[in-house]
């Protein structure tokens, strides 16, 4: 993940996202650089408009974040219902 963060940092600062610059950023953090990961990331970013991808990612994430709070109460209700059913079943055993 640090490789992606380093690439985003370089892009944000207007620097070229290359093997050399990515390696320098990762080395500066004190992490050990895996040259194969650097090459794979640089190859996968070739021809990609990072600004466009970031703009689309923030739009897609907004509806997901808005729906998250509505799902949590449903899960809590589901967890409580089996407890009530189990208690009712035990009560019928003792009359």
Order of helices and strands: HHHH
Label the CATH architecture: Orthogonal Bundle
Helical amount:
over 70%
Categorize the overall geometry: elongated
Distance from first to last alpha carbon: 60 Å
* Count of domain modules: 1
CATH topology: Arc Repressor Mutant, subunit A
CATH class: Mainly Alpha
Question: How would you summarize this macromolecular structure in one to three sentences?
Answer:
The protein has about 100 residues and is mainly alpha-helical. Helices cover about 80% and strands about 0% of the residues.
What are the main properties of this structure?
Arc Repressor Mutant, subunit A; mainly alpha; single chain; 4 helices
Structural overview:
The chain is mainly α. The chain has one domain: Arc Repressor Mutant, subunit A. 80% of the residues lie in helices and 0% in strands. It has four helices and no strands. It is elongated, with a radius of gyration of 25 Å. It starts with a helix and ends with a helix. The model has no long low-confidence stretch (mean pLDDT 78).
């Amino acid at each position: 993940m640090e490789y992606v963060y380093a690439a985003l940092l370089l892009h944000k600062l207007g620097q070229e996202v290359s093997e050399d610059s990515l390696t320098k950023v990762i080395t500066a953090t004190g992490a050990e650089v895996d040259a194969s990961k650097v090459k794979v990331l640089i190859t996968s970013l070739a021809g990609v408009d990072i600004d466009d991808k970031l703009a689309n990612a923030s739009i897609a994430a907004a509806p997901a974040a808005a729906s998250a709070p509505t799902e949590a109460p449903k899960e809590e209700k589901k967890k409580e219902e089996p407890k009530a059913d189990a208690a009712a079943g035990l009560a019928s055993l003792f009359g």
